[in-house]
Amino acid sequence: MNEENSGDPIGRLQELVLQGRPAARASLSAVRDARAAGPGPETEALRTAYLDLLKLCLCDLAATTTMSVGPLPGGGAASRVLSGDQLRLRAAGMDWPLQGLTMTGLPRLDDLQSCVEAVVRDGVEGDLIEAGAWRGGASILMRATLDGLGAADRTVWVADSFAGFPKAQAEDKDLSGHDFLAVPLEEVKGNFARFGCEQGVRFVPGFFEETLPGLSDGRWAVVRLDGDTYEATWTALQFLYPGLSAGGYLIVDDYGALEECGRAVDEFRSHNGITEPLEEVDWTCKRWRRESRAPIEAPPPSAVPPAGDGSAPPNAVERSQGRGIPTVRELQLTRELAELRERLAAAEAEVGRLRSSPVRAAAARLRRARKG
Ligand SMILES: C[S@@+](CC[C@H](N)C(=O)[O-])C[C@H]1O[C@@H](n2cnc3c(N)ncnc32)[C@H](O)[C@@H]1O
């Protein structure tokens, strides 16, 4: 970690993302501008302008500044404003937005839109699903893209615990401590409703290990995986990939950012003889388009994944509701206040000590004697 960034969680997060990742650095400097196509009178121009504007709103990039959240070295998180050139971090999908509805960034959203357009255009059979939706932004874009194309016959499935990450199993970093990543179902439903995208959406609340086996006979045109961990990725691939139509897309958000996620994908592909090329979407996201019609067996619901014991659903974590994310400035002021309180307490103790000292007592006696 860069010493200068130790008090700045966003700088620290940026360091963590960029360190040793030349592809991420290149993505950051090459990321497209955060701007929307303006409207035109043609239906297609209006559709493009609407989706461009929607993507900016979902990323919270429509205003001049935005707030970003980063983890603190000792646990917890703090937020601060991103402005000017720092907004590129958000556009590149390299930070956690305090208010935005997706952390994926513009290139991944552009690509997701084009995948949805391609499956509708090519008549690829099936619904669309995101496993790991957080506030729902990427899924809202899938629904909006379908609606703009009049593809109301397809459902968008939104799978998440809606309670954040479970306690980590053997292979994974423990992300369960981040309350910020736990977004309740009602809040996510509200996000869809605010954008008028609540029709044709099915929510799948619960841990993947419990819910996704029930979707193993689904037919999918787009499967978007964004559960970060080895376990979540492997489980979603196991139960969703067999139902992916030929011509459908399998998208993995965290392939490059999280080694264990990429490993789950590589192992699944090699285990099942999947040879369609992995295509790079940006510094972290990869996807492939399924060509093979060869069936892949969905395991029975009790099957054991190769990592972790897999025999029991992962543990939910107790969440303290209603705790906001302090800003970096608030944390700094809290620290200053604590220091001032300490100094005040020390000064009060000194005054007390002087008041009760023998010299002070003798002086008081002298004063009383003189008065008398
Ligand atoms: C990085 S966030 C997803 C980001 C989101 N796709 C976006 O557009 O910003 C990861 C999500 O995966 C969910 N998740 C992780 N592991 C899970 C599991 N085993 N079962 C269900 N949800 C899980 C978390 O609750 C969290 O909402």
Concise overview:
By secondary structure, this protein is of the alpha/beta class. The chain is built from 12 helices and 10 strands.
Assign the CATH topology of the largest domain.
Rossmann fold
Main beta sheet? 7 strands, mixed
**Order of strands, widest sheet:** 6-5-4-7-8-10-9
pLDDT averaged over residues: 90
Computed over alpha carbons, the radius of gyration is 26 Å
Broad shape:
elongated
Question: Are there runs of 5+ residues with pLDDT below 50, and where?
Answer: 306-312
How many domains? The number is 2
What level of helicity do the residues show?
25-40%
Order of helices and strands: HHHEEHEHEHEHEHEHEHEEHH
The strand count comes to 10
Strand content: 5-15%
